[in-house]
Fold:
Amino acid sequence: GENVEQHPSTLSVQEGDSAVIKCTYSDSASNYFPWYKQELGKRPQLIIDIRSNVGEKKDQRIAVTLNKTAKHFSLHITETQPEDSAVYFCAAVNNAGNMLTFGGGTRLMVKP
Amino acid sequence: GAGVSQSPSNKVTEKGKDVELRCDPISGHTALYWYRQSLGQGLEFLIYFQGNSAPDKSGLPSDRFSAERTGGSVSTLTIQRTQQEDSAVYLCASSWTVNSNQPQHFGDGTRLSIL
Structure:
């Protein structure tokens, strides 16, 4: 089955700096990669996703890149703000679309 | 429209009791998924439904866990003879179909505590 590794497990940055979270996956048939943000005690919220036919996608301060050959994808947050502080999860969806395998999460702390 | 709704939001019960967790997906979503999140951990996939059918139950942690969905809408996750290791947040998600291009949207979860 699919295995998703996520690094780092914790990340502390100063407000205004950039943050990068990296994930690798094992199943080359996976073709959809969502990122979720989860604030303490709240539901995971989809913040951006990328499909395997695209190498990069950007939405305001958030961007995701995908390298299919190397089987890794990354989340980039620029100009970080305190409200970006949360746990971020990457995930990979198998080709059948019936299973979402999550990475272990990254706790991002943005210091004002 | 309304998002994924889960009930109860919190459940505290004694070891050995049965519990039933409910998920009401986004209207029109035919695919429904259950996950478990232990404290400070990632999300563990349990089971999915396409319509009323759950083709693969191998993700359920033990035979004390079961899930059903009727009418293609509401799903219930039942845990029999609860154990302390069952304590976790149980999250439900739904999507339009079981399709790799469909994003999954989560409910707020049920926080289950087994005493």
